[in-house]
Amino acid sequence: MFNGKTIFIAGHARLPQGMAAKSVFETLTITAEVDTKYGVVLEASCTLATEHGREFIGRLLKGLSLNDGVDDAIESITSYYRGKAANALIAALKDLDLHFQQIKAGEKTKLPS
């Protein structure tokens, strides 16, 4: 049963030409289930073409607190992900963070603590 203490958010970015996922998706999406009190990413996924890539990004983002920003996650993507989608992943992560910050700023009284 859903407890209302998490939110599901998504960030989007354009995929570069020549990627396998480009034939299925025009954009790359990162989705995350985030704890509303601490901003911690509980689970994350993305629309990379391979299951291995999706799982890797999920593990990379799990435990990240969006309350602390995404700079560490961007550094991790830059250091550990060596695929063509690196820039798209970073852009999608920044978009996801932007949505989280907007929710946090605009709906503080609506988010359960």
First and last CA, distance: 18 Å
Contiguous uncertain segments of 5+ residues: none
Largest sheet: 3 strands, antiparallel
Give the count of helical stretches.
3
Care to count the β-strands?
3
The Cα radius of gyration reads 14 Å
Rounded mean pLDDT is 88
Strand content: 15-25%
Largest sheet, spatial ordering of strands: 1-2-3
Describe it for me?
This protein is α+β, with helices and mostly antiparallel strands and 113 residues long. Helices cover 37% and strands 21% of the residues. The protein contains three helices and three strands. It has helices spanning 51-61, 71-80, 86-106; strands at residues 6-14, 27-35, 41-46. The protein has a three-stranded antiparallel sheet with strand order 1-2-3. A hairpin with a 5-residue loop joins β2 (27-35) and β3 (41-46). α2 packs antiparallel against α3 (86-106). The model has no long low-confidence stretch (mean pLDDT 88).
In short:
The chain has three helices and three strands; from the N terminus they run βββααα. It has 113 residues and is of the alpha+beta class.
Descriptive key words:
113 residues; alpha+beta; three-stranded antiparallel β-sheet; 3 helices; 21% strand
